[in-house]
Design goal:
heterodimer, A: alpha+beta, six-stranded antiparallel sheet, 21 helices, B: alpha/beta, Glutaredoxin, five-stranded mixed sheet, 7 strands, 19% strand
């Protein structure tokens, strides 16, 4: 009964979505305020219906209702409750439901936080989101219904894929989807603005916080996925340039470009058509990611069971949504007009260059991801594109982008004098170069790439310090603390996010440059030393988990004769699917991770063992978290908080001017 | 051309490729061994440990080699297709029990039926390495000279059997 209620709720949600996607947009076109006012209650109603469906599926999992096909396929009576709940998004049908659920959360958020928007704008935004929702609800109800019954019911379920039985599974997909789907808001703002022909600075100001919040979620989501792969797959890598990883990374690049381009549109009125295009692009890439994962056109470690019918549905949906938006763009964008002119050496110029580099990097990732498909479609053979390609194209594109990242915030809008900029930055440059050249020597060995990485990281931090010092010198207030507090939060957000990038670069550089790895056979009692740490293998014990049996190894780690920690890597065999999993043991630290994973059992209790010493690896994810924190800080800026309460026009013009000059 | 139409143009091309991509199977990998002599093997038989089955004995006829294991789910999926083919008697099928336990394999065959003329035991997976096995099940078509003519990765489906393998077998048998 409960699953049928869920199914019925989805059908009702589809009806509501159709209404939400048609009447308000039509109402905005003909200027009927009655029709436009349908948008808000429709969005909220749809949210409640999808929430009901989501709870119904959750109930089916919690109650172990194996007469529901999806529940029987992705869970098992032995599976602990939290993983049964996480199993809602453990496979195709349920993760679509999560997609729609999160879309409806964003719609409700828009309906509550859009009181300051003109009614037509709000109606169009919610209408466009309703249309996106129609597509996904139709997809679920036609070819991927999570509530489909299995009659007769299965005696027990086939269990969740052991790879997914991990705390990461509980939190990573929702985070990632919050980001993916969050770009639908920026997308809807852009489409609404194109429809209404009101593509102006106000539009950019309204879009900015939504874009930033979605970007924060996506940053955390991608970082968590990477961290999860690091500790779960058992071979110590943190990024593999797998098609599905790329599918999450491309919207991130587009979103990063969009945040910066919206800043120019907001402050200077420039880059309008470009910002709109990026907003369309960011969401299109989210949809493309969904297509790549679901349709099975590419091989990937993440691919769900694939079905050509589903692939076709998403492709048609993709063609309608993205194709339609791009037609609208080609039709409306030429009339938008240009913003104020600027010289190449100016903040606009640098942000533009940064945008071009980010989009070029995005294009090269997209090309690398789709290249095997292109060749195959043209019957030119089967290839796979791997990390060497991506590393080769990505680093040269990102290096100038990061160099500009340091200068951009110091440049003035419209026109900056290059010699003056050079004078202001000469100390930052000198400090960066000297440190980057000298530091690797003190760490052991010097390689050009390590120096380059450190140079970029230090450059970001030193230029930010120069910028902060100059701003403090010009700020009002007597005490240093008062002047620091006077800086707007959006500025601190930017500084923090940029420093997050620096930390990330340090992590990547140090791991690539100084990581030590050893594959060896270890007998019981034998020791091995890497990176100054001595690992003693004390053998393995069998033990039984809730739905698996495991061999747990014991490694005692010491440094200079002092005990540091004891590590317990495991080799688990999940009994239902008869799959073995490697659970690596990780001892995290501020400046290094120790990582042990068990390979295969050999004779006499010996095992093949893999040991890693990974300096600064946690900085990779720490950097991402700090980027996201920067984003949150920027969104909490005073002018947005004010904007929720008043229309911007209510604020005195002088105050507005003052704010624009500081940030 | 209008620069505002450019994104649309790129998108149309990408969608075209994606549409073609849907009709292709990325898991269908060409094997470098197709057209080359099949690697020799000489292994103990599953049903009679004392006897050996060698690839040299099979020269002079067209035959199928099927890598399977009792622990493999895909093998269960393709099994009815193999049993049906064995009943038709069109082509002899030889099994290769890949990295498996002998008693589990025997139980499996008793339960689901035995389509194989003889099953060889590749306990260490060494022969599988020589054949470049990605994962079980895999099926090879050998001609009379012992040359690999076709390789199927993953479960054998009836449409592949009828559309590709059987026409090929008949053609090879008539040579």
């Amino acid at each position: 009964m409960i699953p049928e209620i869920g199914h019925f709720a989805l059908i009702l949600a589809l009806c509501v979505a159709v209404v939400q996607g048609s009447l308000p947009i039509y109402g905005a076109a003909v200027g009927s305020s009655t029709l436009m006012s349908v948008a808000k209650p429709a969005a909220r109603g749809q949210f409640l219906l999808v929430l009901l469906a989501f709870c119904c599926l959750g109930y089916a999992f919690a109650a172990k209702d194996f007469s529901v096909l999806y529940v029987a396929a992705t869970s098992n009576s032995q599976l602990p409750l939290h993983y049964r709940i996480a199993a809602i998004w453990g496979a195709h049908e349920g993760s679509l439901l999560l997609w729609v659920f999160i879309l409806s959360i964003w719609m409700v958020a828009v309906s509550f936080f859009s009181t300051h928007l003109p009614e037509a704008m709000r109606a169009r935004i919610l209408g466009v989101m309703g249309l996106v929702s129609v597509g996904f609800l139709l997809f679920m109800l036609t070819v991927s219904n999570p509530f489909e019954r299995l009659i007769p019911a299965a005696f027990d379920g086939r269990d969740l894929n052991p790879l997914l039985q991990d705390p990461g599974m509980v939190i990573h997909p929702p985070m990632l989807y919050m980001g993916y789907v969050g770009f639908s808001v920026a997308f809807s703002f852009a489409i609404a603005a194109l429809l209404g022909g009101t593509l102006d600075a106000a539009w950019a100001r309204w879009s900015r916080p939504w874009t930033t919040v979605a970007w924060c979620f996506l940053t955390v989501g991608v970082a968590m996925g990477s961290g999860w792969a690091y500790y779960e797959l058992g071979w110590g890598g943190w990024w593999f340039w797998d098609p599905v990883e790329n599918a999450s990374f491309m919207p991130w690049l587009a979103g990063t470009a969009l945040i910066h381009s919206l800043a120019v549109t907001d402050k200077r009125g420039g880059f309008k058509a470009w910002s709109v295009l990026l907003a369309i692009l960011a969401f299109s890439l989210s949809l493309l990611g969904t297509f790549l994962v679901r349709s099975g056109v590419l091989t990937s470690v993440h691919a769900f069971a694939t079905d050509p019918k589903r692939g076709l549905f998403i492709l048609v949906f993709l063609a309608v949504v993205i194709g339609g938006s791009l037609v609208l763009y080609a039709w409306r964008a030429p009339r938008v007009g240009l913003g104020g002119g600027f010289s190449i050496i100016s903040r606009e110029g640098m942000l533009l260059a940064n945008n071009v580099l980010l989009v070029a990097a995005l294009g090269s990732v997209l090309l690398g991801t789709l290249y095997p498909l292109f060749l195959d479609a043209l019957d030119l053979g089967k290839i796979s594109v791997g990390p060497p390609y991506f590393d080769t194209v990505f680093v040269p594109l990102m290096t100038p982008a990061i160099f500009l990242m340091g200068i951009g915030p110091l440049a003035q809008w419209k026109k900056t004098s290059l010699p003056e900029l050079a004078t202001r930055l000469r100390w930052a440059f000198a400090v960066s170069i000297v440190t980057a050249l000298a530091l690797p020597f003190t760490l052991g060995h010097w390689t050009p790439l390590v120096s380059l990485g450190l140079l970029l990281a230090i450059w970001i931090v030193t230029t930010a310090a120069v910028d902060l010092r100059e701003r403090l010198a010009h700020a009002d207030g007597s005490s240093l603390l008062g002047r620091l507090a006077a800086m707007p939060r959006s500025y601190w957000g930017m500084v923090l996010a940029h420093c997050g990038v620096a930390l990330f670069i340090v992590g990547v550089t140090m791991v690539k440059g100084f990581e030590v790895e050893q594959d060896l056979r270890m007998n019981v009692g034998q020791t091995a030393t890497i990176g100054g740490y001595t690992f003693q293998f004390d053998g393995t014990q069998q033990y039984k988990g809730p739905n698996y049996i495991a061999a747990r190894g014991t490694f005692r780690v010491s440094q200079d004769g002092r005990d540091v920690t004891v590590m317990y890597p495991e080799k688990r065999r999940y009994t239902v699917q008869n799959q073995t999993m490697t659970e690596a043991a990780i001892s995290p630290g501020f400046a290094r991770d120790l990582y042990v994973s068990l390979g295969e059992p050999l004779d006499d209790g010996a095992w093949s063992v893999r040991l890693y010493h990974k300096p600064f690896v946690d900085w990779i994810w720490g950097g991402c978290l700090i980027m996201a924190l920067g984003g949150i800080l920027a969104v909490s800026d005073r002018r947005y908080r004010l904007a929720w309460r008043h229309k911007e026009a209510d604020v005195p013009a002088a105050t507005q001017m003052a704010r624009q000059t500081v940030s | 051309m209008n620069r505002f139409l450019l994104p649309l143009g790129i998108f149309v091309v990408v969608v075209g490729f994606l549409a073609v991509g849907l009709t292709l199977n990325p898991r269908e990998l060409p094997s470098p061994l197709v057209g080359k002599p099949a690697p020799d093997f000489s292994l103990p038989q599953l049903h009679d440990q004392g006897k050996v089955i060698s690839s040299n004995e099979l020269k002079g006829k067209v035959w199928l080699l099927n890598f399977w294991a009792s622990w493999c789910d895909g093998c269960k999926v393709e099994h009815p297709v193999l049993v049906h083919l064995a009943q038709s008697g069109e082509v002899p099928i030889y099994g290769m029990d890949y990295k498996d336990q002998r008693n589990e394999a025997l139980t499996w065959l008793r339960e689901w039926g035995n389509p194989y003329q003889v099953v060889a035991v590749d306990e260490s997976g060494r022969v599988g390495i020589n054949y470049g096995v990605y994962g079980v099940p895999e099926t090879y078509v050998m001609d009379k000279a012992g040359v690999i003519r076709y390789k199927q990765i993953g479960p054998l489906r009836d449409d592949i059997l009828q559309g590709k393998i059987l026409p090929l077998v008949r053609e090879l048998q008539n040579q």
